[in-house]
Amino acid sequence: NFCVMTLSHVEPSIVCSASAMVAMNRYGRW
């Protein structure tokens, strides 16, 4: 997933969480 790249940093992980929620709602899967 694209979030894996951001998990290496703390701040981007927050953005990743928000993006993940949006992607989850859009694509219906993680």
Quick overview of this protein structure:
With 30 residues, the chain is an all-alpha fold.
The general outline is rod-shaped
Q: How does the major sheet shape up?
A: none
The arrangement of helices and strands along the chain is HH
Mean pLDDT: 63
Q: Structural class, judged by helices and strands?
A: mainly alpha
Total domain count: 1
- By DSSP (H or I, 4+ residues per run), the number of helices equals 2
Radius of gyration: 9 Å
Total beta-strand segments: 0
How far apart the termini lie comes to 8 Å
Helix-residue proportion: over 70%
Low-confidence stretches: none
Provide the β-strand percentage band: under 5%
Walk me through the topology.
Elements lengths: L2 H4 L3 H18 L3
What does this 3D model show about the protein?
With 30 residues, the chain is an all-alpha fold. It has one domain (1-25). Helix content is 73%, strand content 0%. It contains 2 helices and no strands. The chain has helices at residues 3-6, 10-27. The radius of gyration is 9 Å and the shape is rod-shaped.
